[in-house]
Amino acid sequence: MDISTIISIGVSVFTACIVFYLQRSQNKRDRRTEERARIRQEESYHTMQMVKATMSLSRATAIAIRDHKCNGEMSAAMEYCSDADRGFTEFIRRQGAAHIHEK
User: Fold this and answer.
1) CA pair distance 39, 94, nearest whole angstrom
2) What's the domain count of the chain?
3) Among candidates 87, 72, 71, 78, which has minimal Cα distance to 57?
4) Distance between CA atoms of residues 91 and 98, nearest Å
5) Which domain holds residue 53?
6) Tens-digit pLDDT profile for residues 31-53
């Protein structure tokens, strides 16, 4: 084996190491991006639940004002609103705990 063969083998190994490192870095970025997308999706779900609960509560309030009495719709709307709030609060707690453990 002459020196040019040894140099070309060395360059090939060096290039393979660099490609491996870059690919590994890209895979880490992809995983982080996918995780962020999953978190955004869950956050959107909880936000939609909160909006729907607010709409339900607004509707029940309007009916109660119109009819001059509080009925079962108000109780159901309040319960739905409480459930949505608990779900969103739990999501925020999980995200806070995950953020603390990242560091």
Assistant:
1) 11
2) 1
3) 78
4) 11
5) 3-102
6) 999 999 999 999 999 999 999 99
